[in-house]
Specification:
Distance between the termini: 65 Å
Number of domains: 3
Order of helices and strands: EEEHHHHHHHHH
CATH architecture of the largest domain: Orthogonal Bundle
Largest sheet: 3 strands, antiparallel
Strand content: 5-15%
Strand order of the largest sheet: 1-2-3
Number of strands: 3
């Protein structure tokens, strides 16, 4: 059987070559030279020196990291770990400060401090339950739902199951009660809004029909007078007595009067049509805007309830 033995020649100037003595089937020694690329040569030297250095892995492609040596990469990784530890320590200090401020009753400053802690380390789960606790006065009242959505999202994304379960147990009953209250209020507002719209709709429809009738009564005579004026104008010299010329002047004059009346009636018609159109918009009245605000708040409460509710 063929045998081979590896010779490490430290005196060889070309360290990218590996020499092997191979015993062939005839029992004779043969010299083989393997050419290694730079990476393989570096690995061979590292193994020979007993170097256990590991190249750190990065989650994303980094052009700067690709140009670094293994030692530089290790130093960069160590630097990042130190910076992460420093951020965690600062975030913890800010959290403890906010907790002390809340106990002292300074809730607004506590919220500002928690915002700073979030900027330092958004993944710190303890921040978000404390924010919710401050905003709801220890889960006794609800502010505008929009203020709670961001910390609720943070709680869902960064808190432990135990933390989420605790927040859910304390806040979900309050949310359900407020949601039911808002739904009842929205039903009342919608009924009132639709009732007033229906009453105005009848009134505006009558005015619209009257304006349309007046416009037609003014515009149709204008068309008739204009056609007659044009007709007599084309034969005004056929009558030597000048009757057709007089009729031409008369009909054009009447057409001008009808045109002015049509313009005036058109303005009334446009205004009546605009009122009919605007009446259907909820944003055109105070009660309609209040209903829209209530509907938006109901949707925010539903979204917030969905985020907060946690089931094991």
């Amino acid at each position: 059987m063929a045998e081979e033995r590896i010779i490490d020649d430290d005196e060889d100037k070309d360290k990218n070559k590996k020499y092997r003595f191979r015993i062939n089937e005839d029992g004779e020694e043969e010299l083989e030279i393997d050419e290694l690329d730079e990476e393989e040569a570096a690995e061979e030297r590292a193994e020979a020196e007993g170097d256990d250095f590991e190249i750190p892995e990065f989650e994303e492609d980094d052009e700067d990291a690709a140009a670094m040596t293994p030692e530089q990469l290790q130093a960069e990784l160590k630097k990042q770990q130190e910076e992460q530890t420093a951020r965690e320590n600062r975030a913890r200090e800010l959290y403890n400060k906010a907790l002390a401020l809340m106990d002292e009753g300074d809730r607004m400053y506590a919220l500002t401090t928690l915002d700073s802690a979030t900027a330092e380390l958004s993944g710190m789960g303890e921040i978000y339950p404390l924010k919710l606790r401050i905003l709801t006065d220890d889960y006794t009242r609800l502010p505008e739902p929009g203020q709670l959505i961001a910390p609720a999202e943070g709680c869902r994304g960064h808190c432990t199951p135990a933390q989420r379960s605790e927040v859910s147990q304390k806040l979900t009953p309050l949310l359900h009660a407020e949601l039911q209250k808002q739904e009842r209020e929205n039903v009342r507002l919608k009924e009132e809004n639709e009732g007033k719209k229906a009453a105005r709709r009848i009134k505006f429809a009558k005015k619209y029909k009257a304006a349309l009738r007046n416009f037609v009564l003014a515009f149709v005579p204008f068309i008739i007078m204009l056609v007659l004026g044009i007709g007599f104008c084309s034969v005004r010299y056929a009558d030597k007595g000048g009757t057709f010329l007089v009729l031409t002047i008369v009909f054009f004059s009447l057409a001008a009067v009808a045109l002015i009346a049509s313009i005036v009636m058109a303005r009334f018609f446009a205004e009546a049509a605009r009122r009919v159109r605007v009446n259907e918009r909820d944003t055109s009245t105070a009660i309609g805007r209040e209903y829209l605000q209530g509907a938006a708040r109901e949707e925010e409460l539903k979204r917030l309830t969905e985020i907060i509710t946690y089931k094991n």
